[in-house]
Design goal:
single chain; 426 residues; mainly alpha; Glycosyltransferase; 2 domains; two-stranded antiparallel ribbon; 17 helices; 6 strands; binds zinc ion; metal ion binding; repeat
Length: 426
């Protein structure tokens, strides 16, 4: 609602809620313990979307160490690469040690595809340069998880396989900039076979169309860069129609189901990837999210008058990002992170590709990058005091962040940033 009666979301409480999710959560969330890495991703990415990463700055390195402690590394002979990836949590009982003992798994230990997806994106958002990831091992682990029908299991032992894990596999491949862990023709066939008579995607062939799985299918095709080659124009039209019809006030996941906070992202994000989000009604969508916001402890619940949880808190914020809510960063819907973090990933990819071409520039230690970033950010704010009518040019920081992560180029980046800043100030 525009005007003086417009509801203001209480971002301070949402920040506090996400911080709580990274420390201790109420007992009713005990069942989430085996997916602690994914809960952490919701909180870390939620804080990023609210541009509040400073709120966890003092614990940032501890979080990075904890995430790396969940990495299942290969043994010396690399004979166990099929087990590799990131564990979903430390629940299996392996003692915390972010260093070499990661190579000593406990019985029935292995990576989990959702844990790997959550860990990689969380490391990226936390500012890690991903240099301690064993990329070949994760790709080998991914290859082991693909089944003959093209879908993916969550773990080497797991019987569960569906579109959720197809999306995780696509995201992991995109982040690692390596698609050799996926048989693309097979996975594309699986996605096509999951398109239902209703016009949207199901978890697998012969099942019911669903908002969450539709997002997973469409985002996977977008990440693979083949949406329009795989889905015909008439199929795309039916898909857009199905998604738009899911809006009641907020969005529902299936026909005849109640609206639910998370579908403001699952269906909203799909509409954005299809280029028709502008045909949804922001007033109704935002109004529903106002009802599911918890005004006491922060976060969003699934439904009005329910308790908030990390998943719905995060996707409530994402839904608002799609509607360009002030105070929330724009997001890269396919990758499910802020555009800022997605841009940072592209900088890391450039670095990897340069290294693969022969040059191996040493990486600038992360602490130096953070320090230089703070120095640079101080310049525009000092100048803004003198002239509040001018806002700092965003490209300074973007240029700086990409250049500063490329080893010896940090010196050039600082010079470029300073020249830009001085030019802008005067
Ligand atoms: Zn939900």
């Amino acid at each position: 609602m525009a005007g003086p009666n417009r509801h203001e979301f209480n971002w301070k409480k949402h920040v506090r809620f996400f911080k709580m999710c990274l420390q201790v959560v109420p007992g009713r969330y005990a069942s989430m313990d085996t997916t602690r890495m994914t809960v952490a991703f919701f909180a870390i990415s939620g804080l990023d979307m609210l541009d509040q990463m400073d709120a966890i700055e003092k614990d940032r390195q501890k979080m990075v160490d904890w995430i790396y402690s969940l990495q299942y590394l290969p043994n010396a002979a690399r004979s166990n690469e099929g087990q590799c990836g990131f564990r979903g949590s430390s629940t299996a009982g392996r003692p915390f040690d972010p260093k070499e003992s990661s190579r000593n798994p406990v019985p029935h230990d292995s990576g989990h595809i959702a844990g790997t997806y959550s860990a990689l994106l969380s490391l990226l958002i936390l500012g890690d340069n991903l240099s301690k990831i064993d990329r070949p091992a994760i790709v080998a682990g991914l290859r082991k998880l693909q089944l003959s029908d093209g879908s993916f299991s969550a773990t080497p032992e797991d019987g569960e396989n569906d579109m959720r894990f197809v999306y995780c596999a696509a995201c992991i491949s995109y982040v690692l900039d390596d698609w050799s862990g996926i048989d693309r023709p097979k996975v594309i066939r699986y996605i096509k076979n999951s398109l239902t008579y209703e016009g949207a995607f199901a978890q697998g062939p012969g099942l019911e169309a669903h908002g969450g799985t539709t997002f997973c299918a469409v985002a996977s095709l977008v990440l693979m860069g083949c949406l329009h080659e795989v889905i015909s124009p008439s199929q795309l039209d039916r898909l857009k129609r199905w998604c738009l019809l899911r809006q009641q006030s907020g969005f529902q996941g299936r026909p005849n189901k109640p609206v639910d906070t998370c579908y403001s992202f699952w269906v909203g994000g799909t509409l954005q990837l299809l280029g028709v989000f502008n045909y949804s009604n922001n007033l109704f969508n935002r109004g529903f999210l106002e009802e599911t916001e918890d005004s006491v402890v922060g976060g969003f619940a699934k439904w009005p008058d329910n308790s908030p949880d990390p998943l719905h808190a995060y996707f409530g914020v994402c839904g608002l990002s799609l509607m360009s809510e002030p105070g929330v960063l724009k997001m890269d819907a396919a990758l499910n992170v802020s555009e800022r973090s997605a841009a940072r990933l592209r900088g890391i990819h450039s670095l990897w590709r340069d290294s693969a071409d022969g040059g191996v520039p040493p990486l600038l230690p992360l602490e130096h990058t953070a320090f230089l970033k703070r120095c640079l950010m101080a310049l525009p704010s000092a100048a803004a005091t003198a002239d509040a009518s001018r806002s700092p040019p965003k490209h300074i920081l973007d240029s700086y962040l990409i250049l500063s992560s490329t080893g010896w180029l940090w010196l050039i980046s600082v010079c470029v940033a300073l020249i830009y800043s001085i030019t802008w100030m005067f």
